[in-house]
Design brief:
The protein is α+β, with helices and mostly antiparallel strands. The chain contains 14 helices and four strands.
Length: 361
């Protein structure tokens, strides 16, 4: 059983270069400047007209086998113009006018957000950008995702135009550009983007009734949690070089999201999100199983896992309340992020969690 749960002892975060609080927020990454331009242009052209010009995947429908289509690969891997491609019929969105794009401030810098009110449109955009336009099923408990390493061919085009302008009319320009392009490929900050896709549905598909909160208020809080959750993934990626779809990362991100929405960490909310509000029972549809795709667990191991999740959440709540309110704001919240990110899940669930967290904090 312990071997099946060995993933709970993992921690992929690199704390070699911890950034002092006084140096935060970090300077925006280069792609933010381009998204600022997109946001300005949307006010003039409208989102449905502009965005496919900038994000090439939106020129293709969600369709079985699309990721293996030759023209799709030429457009997304080499930046070939889609104008004469018969497959580039565009992606179908039900309410494109209700999609909003803005920049969200985190302590790791600003990150672009594509916010969607229509659930089907949210699932479509996740399939487009995360699953290469393939019609894969999206879990009902999923309401957001972070896209990383996105090759933005609009940025490559602008870089090429500037390079041509700077280099005038030299001989063998095509060859020289190919050499420049090869150099550029090693500098991913020049063409790769990160951005968030958010829906405004109930967080983790948990109803307002389950939490005893009015419906409109829960929808508002859900967006706060979701945005801060994904923003935390962005922070750990920039600060510690990792953001993964596992329980430790999710606990950290949910912790920060709940604190942002409620002003304190509530273990009950987190357990509801995981499907463990009726512990030891597990509610079908809870997010816990989303993080076990690469782990085959016996019934005994799953029971132990539920216990670890419950204990970690309650330990964090007890610790946070003991050291509140400093731990819930500003530098104290950042120190909590650092401390939790130095732990593994087994440690967070242990009886001596407080001692370990203080030592590592």
């Amino acid at each position: 059983m312990q071997e099946q749960l060995s993933f709970l002892r993992e921690n992929q975060f690199d704390h070699t270069h911890v950034i002092p609080w006084q140096e935060l927020p970090l300077t925006d990454e280069p792609f933010v400047r381009d998204w600022e331009e997109y946001i300005q242009d949307i006010t003039r052209m409208g989102l449905p007209a502009l965005l496919p010009q900038k994000l090439v995947q939106l020129n293709f429908p969600v369709k079985e086998g699309m990721s293996k289509n030759v023209n799709y690969q030429l457009a997304t891997r080499r930046g070939v113009d889609t104008l004469l491609m018969p497959e580039a019929t565009g992606v179908e969105l039900e309410e494109p006018g209700n999609i909003e794009i803005y920049l969200y401030q985190t302590i790791a810098g600003r990150i672009p957000v594509i916010q969607v009110t229509n659930r089907n449109d949210f699932e479509t955009l996740v399939r487009v950008f995360f699953h290469k336009n393939e019609p894969v099923p999206i879990p009902s408990s999923m309401g957001a995702c972070m896209i990383t390493g996105y090759n933005n061919w609009d940025r490559v085009k602008k870089y090429k135009e500037k390079w041509h302008s700077d280099n005038g009319f030299k001989e063998n320009m095509d060859l020289l550009w190919q050499l420049e392009f090869e150099k550029m490929k090693s500098q991913t900050e020049l063409y790769q983007d990160k951005f968030l896709i958010l829906s405004d549905k109930e967080y983790s598909n948990v109803s307002a009734e389950m939490l005893g909160i009015p419906g409109d208020e829960w929808r508002r809080l859900s967006l706060v949690i979701r945005r801060e959750h994904e923003g935390t993934h962005y922070c750990t990626l920039r600060f510690f070089g990792s953001a993964r779809n596992n329980l430790l990362d999710e606990l950290i991100a949910d912790y920060m999201g709940i604190v942002a929405a409620a002003g304190r960490f509530t273990a009950r909310w987190f357990l509801c999100f995981m499907g463990l509000e009726g512990y030891p029972a597990f509610r079908s549809g809870g997010r816990l199983v989303n993080y076990l795709k690469n782990n085959e667990l016996s019934g005994e191991a799953f029971e132990a896992l539920k216990s670890y999740v419950k204990n970690a959440a309650r330990n964090l709540e007890a610790f946070s309340e003991k050291y509140a309110p400093e731990i819930y704001q500003g530098e104290g919240k950042y120190k909590m992020l650092l401390a939790i990110s130095k732990m593994n899940f087994i440690e967070l669930a242990s009886e001596n969690m407080e001692k370990l967290l203080l030592e590592k904090g």
